[in-house]
Amino acid sequence: MTSVEWQIREFRGRDGLLAVEASWKELLAGMAHAELCHDFKANLAYIDHLCHDPANFRCLTLADANAVVAVCPLEARSDASLRFGLPVWGLPWHPHWQISGVVSANERVLHELIPAVTAYLRRSAGSRPLVVFGPLPADSPLWQGLDRLPPSTYCLHDSRAADVFDCREPYDVLMARLTKHFRRNLRSHYKKLLSLDDVRLVTATDSADLATEFQAFMTVEASGWKGSSGTGSAILLHPELTAFYGDLAANLGREGRCQINSAYAEGRCIASQFCVRVSDEWAILKIGYDESYARVAPGLALLQAMLEQCCADPGTNRLSLVTDGSWQRDWQPDVVGMRQAHVAVKPLPGRSLVSLLRLRHGPAKRLAQRLRH
Q1: Do 228 and 258 have their domain in common?
Q2: Residue 253 belongs to what domain range?
Q3: Which of 150, 264, 287, 327 is 20 to 30 A from residue 65's alpha carbon, by CA?
């Protein structure tokens, strides 16, 4: 199959996303593995709460002679890879939506998607010089499409990785990977946690319990360094983030695909996890804990319990931590490398920017890393 055999249609804004719902869900059902970025309801939440301007949201459907074979969501947005606002088309991305994706169950289609979408944008995208694909897993078949483009027209580079656990492995096998020192710390911290008054671990899965635990989650997440006296990044301090996570809790929760795990002691919530499920994967999107209880590490107890739950469920193949935070390394997770590509849409400005991006992510970046270390 070649890209010239495809019909590409463009659907705009929230109404455009709703217009492709049937095709999106049919394709998603055929995917062997999916993440939050592939979920239709999650994308509705994205466009309603995280998208800077929903009018700039697009869904491109790619169809052969018989049916739609892929849906590629795009957003006209600003990209800061060159330390200044660069107008691009890109797969949806936000600090609270760090992994992106397209919806297709056909690897041959994915091999063709980047050149096909780039060619379409070249004909119709106005003044935006680049299109950004990713962050996506480094082993995604999507990247093979870059081989069909002139090397001078794109910059492919590594981006932040994601830590995951293969929950097809028995829980005891995963725990046996941990160092003796870390296992001893887990036992010690858990013993200290149990020594507190009124200790309980709560798992909320139905709508009423999720609503209650969502408030507790936001409160504890805002209680420490993320709060108003720290970085100011707490969800509770940003109405659009509160609405986004509330939307996920309500709409995915109705389908049994949202879970909030909380640790309580001494009459208060001292740690909480916000988790969602798509396909065969649970993902821990956000965590929060009361820093005054750091000595008992309640977040570690929650992660251990969630890992045990996922390994015990035959329908769960993976638990994702979404990012690669340094504290996670003690758990010996598998690391999923991520990549991102900037592809020139407009030949002159696009190729010049690609050259700058190659300097930014090539020798200059490696030199900066050496100087830091």
Answers
A1: yes
A2: 168-316
A3: 150
CA distances 57 to 10, 15, 75, 77, 363, Å, are 10, 10, 5, 9, 34
Please tell me whether residues 142 and 173 are part of one structural domain.
no
Same domain, 36 and 154: yes
**pLDDT tens digits for range 124-180:** 867 799 999 999 999 999 999 999 999 999 999 999 999 999 999 999 999 999 999
Q: Which residue has the tokens 């969501």?
A: 73
**Strand order across the 130-137 sheet:** 7-12, 57-63, 68-79, 86-90, 130-137, 334-344, 154-166, 318-320, 281-289, 268-278, 258-265, 200-204
Amino acid identity, residue 211? A
Q: Using DSSP, state whether 343 is helix, strand or coil.
A: strand
145 and 240 together in one domain: no
Measured CA distances, 102 to 36, 258, 317 (Å):
11, 22, 21
User: Distance between CA atoms of 315 and 318, rounded to whole angstroms?
Assistant: 9
Question: How many distinct structural domains can be found in the chain?
Answer: 2
pLDDT in tens, 160-175: 999 999 999 999 999 9
